[in-house]
Amino acid sequence: MPKAAVTNKQELMAYFTRMTLCRRTEIVADNLYKAKLIRGFCHLYDGQEAIAEGMEAALTYEDAIITAYRDHCQAICRGDTPYRVLAEMMQKRTGSTAGKGGSMHYYNSKNNFYGGNGIVGAQLPVGTGLAFALKYQKKPNCAVAMYGDGAANQGQLYEAANMAALWKLPILYVCENNLYGMGTSNERASANTKFYTRGDGIPGFKIDGQNVLVVREAMKFAKNWCVAGKGPLFIEFSTYRYHGHSMSDPGVTYRTREEINEVRANRDPIEIVRKLLLENSWASEGELKDIEKKIRAEIDADVEKIKNDPEPYPEDLYTNVGIGKHYIRGINHPDLSQLEY
Amino acid sequence: MHKKQQVLSSLLQRAATTQRTLVATQRAAFHASQTANVEMTCRDAINTAMCEEIERDPNVFLMGEEVGQYNGAYKVSKGMYDKYGPSRIWDTPISETGFTGIGVGAGFMGLRPIIEFMTWNFSLQAIDHIINSCAKGHYMSAGDLKCPIVFRGINGVSAGVAAQHSQCFASWYASVPGLKVVTPWNIEDLRGLLKASIRDEDPVVFLENEMMYGVTMSAPDHIMDKDFVLPLNKAKIEREGTDVTITAFSKMVGFSLEAAEILKRDFDISAEVINLRVIRPLDRNTIVQSVKKTNRIVSVEEGWPQSGVGSEIAALMMESEAFDYLDAPLERIAGADVPMPYSVSIERLAVPQVDNIIKGVLKACHGKKQR
């Protein structure tokens, strides 16, 4: 396993910029949710940005990623824009999935991003299927299935991992351990909280998820492992989410404000990169603040524009149910959808 | 393997004798000789269809429990592991949730998996992947995700396997937008519908019947064409009639045809038997046009009555122009509303038999003026 990372100004500036983009998107989503422009479920990723960013630094879009519902930043890192990501949550036709999916359902098959999955744990066998396809098609790539400490107790993870080990599939099971599955701490949910060991005979390791360079090097190592045909790995990233589980969870009934503030002060992923840039004189405080201000202004402008975007049309209700035309019944009979049967 | 050559000559010899043909189609003949027919078991129909599609498209593979080295729990995939090897025929551990999810992910990346459930009862372990991961994916992704997968296996009643192994899942899966639900009956259906399902871009739930696996049936030899496919949205009128429409799928088609023979012979009732072939999308048009002709309808299914396929057909009768043509209410024949018992004496009472269908038709035709 790697012991050091080599980096330069360009890389760190790129990480800083996109992580700030991710962070700002999540903060704006919070405000929009409170303003009731976003509805339903909204699970925010702020605090965990280094994992999404660090993974992309190690992978290409030929590698496949799948995650659960805390997926806004993975969507952005896989090539989507804050505009489309926010427009989707704001229920607009201009959103990433045309207003059909919402916060939990972002996809980008061209860039091998398979969601965006609402059912806890389901992404693990499906992600294993992505790895199956990569091996079947003899591609020198890996698949990454991301999950949380809560999902680590889903039986289907172990069914899938067993087959991955049996068939030596190039899959990385990446646990983003942010210490709480909704309101339940690791200790209250798991008899064995060493999530990197839960793969039984499958090797695993635990590592810091707040430092984008650490994440990057770990993922590079892991991808090489997979592509060399050695089979799956269980990777546990130590991380933290500032928000509650979702917008309906204040996030302070099962943890202390002190704990949250401690992470913000000492382990914030963006601050870690800022510190590296400043320490090495690769950027000044002012430059970095300008980047933040620019991103803030761009996203604010996006939001204003999105507010005037159209919502899905009534006929959009009936599109993309399946491929090709077939009879779809509406609420009443006959109804708007009435294609001849 | 089919015994085409031997059978062909013996069939031509037997051309004059009455035989119980279970498939109706005759080509328009310029001469009087019998159409060339092929005979095979339903099991072999499925086997040949899968083999041909595996040979045709390198992305097609079969995955499931005992499908490979064991030659299939019911010998449906016999010989396939020897022919195609472990890269195309995948034996899995007993992990339905796991391997169904794996199939769905593989489908998302452009492969064409055939996932076999040893019985559809075991699909309950994996139903989240069929419905939430797979069926809804195309819609939630606004058309980005596609999953050209076929889930297949035996459905419904077998013999003496009791409650947990005897459920019919046709209506459960048929209620889900995003899925196709296919219910083949004979060897023509099995070959044509399975090949079409494997080639289809939508996820398909393919419901086979174990009791039919060993049954030898005959069909026109064009079904052996390597590109023989049937449409996945059309029912077939297996027997034309004028007095009553019987809708059925899977094994019940055969029972309905037997009932139709007896109804004609003993009661002079001419029954039109519709083989639904596909429950979703249901060929509503064929059913409605038939009822406009016959004015009476009997729906037959093996599964439980509540919220079953017959319920959907009854709703169709209410919602379509067929309502104005009905001379009697829809008669519904379904499995008894109980978990399947074990002893044959009561198992027989839980599943529709030919007598039940005759009884239902007589009730539907009550008051019908005979010509």
UniProtKB/TrEMBL annotation, chain A:
The keyword Acetylation does not apply. This is Pyruvate dehydrogenase E1 component subunit alpha. The keyword Oxidoreductase applies. Its EC number is 1.2.4.1. Its cofactor is thiamine diphosphate. One of its GO terms (molecular function) is pyruvate dehydrogenase (acetyl-transferring) activity. GO terms for biological process: pyruvate decarboxylation to acetyl-CoA.
From TrEMBL, chain B:
Residues 40-215 form the Transketolase-like pyrimidine-binding domain. Keywords: Oxidoreductase, Pyruvate, Thiamine pyrophosphate. It is an enzyme of class 1 (oxidoreductase). One of its GO terms (biological process) is pyruvate decarboxylation to acetyl-CoA. Its cofactor is thiamine diphosphate. InterPro entries: PDHB_mito-type, THDP-binding, Transketo_C/PFOR_II, Transketolase-like_Pyr-bd, Transketolase_C. Its EC number is 1.2.4.1. GO terms for molecular function: pyruvate dehydrogenase (acetyl-transferring) activity. The keyword Oxidoreductase applies. SMART domains: Transket_pyr. It comes from the Eukaryota. It catalyses: N(6)-[(R)-lipoyl]-L-lysyl-[protein] + pyruvate + H(+) = N(6)-[(R)-S(8)-acetyldihydrolipoyl]-L-lysyl-[protein] + CO2. The pyruvate dehydrogenase complex catalyzes the overall conversion of pyruvate to acetyl-CoA and CO2. NCBIfam families: PRK09212.1, PRK11892.1. This is Pyruvate dehydrogenase E1 component subunit beta.
